[in-house]
Amino acid sequence: MVDSLDQTVGELLEALEKAGMLKDTILVFASDNGGDPYSAPRTRAITGLCEEPKPRSGKADPRLTRSSRVSTQLMHATDWLPTLYAAAGGRVGDLGTLDGVNMWQALSQGTPSPRTELLHEIDDWSGASAIRFQNYKLVVGNYGNKFDTRFEIVGGTRPHGDLKALRQNSKAAAVLKRFYGTQNSLLQPNINDWSAGGNVSCGQGNPNQNFVQGQRYYLFDLSCDPCELRNLASTNPQIVSFLLSKLAAYNKTVVPTIDPTMDSRGFPENNNGLWGPWIF
To answer: Is residue 84 part of a domain?
Structure first.
């Protein structure tokens, strides 16, 4: 599946190149969550890699003065609309009231993110919720121990040895080499891979060592604990209280869930091994 995706991206780049549109194109690759080697299933408030993958900038657009880097600025999925609208020359104010903020200056010039917080979830079905403010993430409630245990560390190693070769020989790389020439470090095999800055290391050890399931509050400092292994709630009651007040403000605008019951029509066994659209 991933190989087919790579081929499709290459074909898309080829089409943009032939149409003379590549120089004016911003490519965005978005995903739901990262892997979940330590935590609860990815549809839950506690996620394995905590945050969505960091934006990576490799496009030689003249408006990207800070390119070929991994951005660590806080960003939410709702920010893409005003960000891309601004990048295309639009006035964000014309869009009206939005949940998202314009991240274009932060991404293109490396200035501080205008976003300081984001709401992960408010689940009126289970009562669980999660919010992040700067480096702190608060998770409230649990799922009655049904989804609250952590997955064990997956053994073995990942075959990264051929990653650079596959990237260098891809159809997309051929297009970008013609576009960039030798200007971009991403296409030069002997230069350190700048995209490695997006990797997250959880370290070694038992993921359950500092994790007690079924607690009411979980507070994590993502700047030094990106895999959410150390619950700081008991030693930082003021931070917990501050984040609870922010959750309460968001909760005033929550729209009730229409139908939270599980629908078996979405189960993989009913869809040739794939999750279908009728999950909940």
So the answer is: no
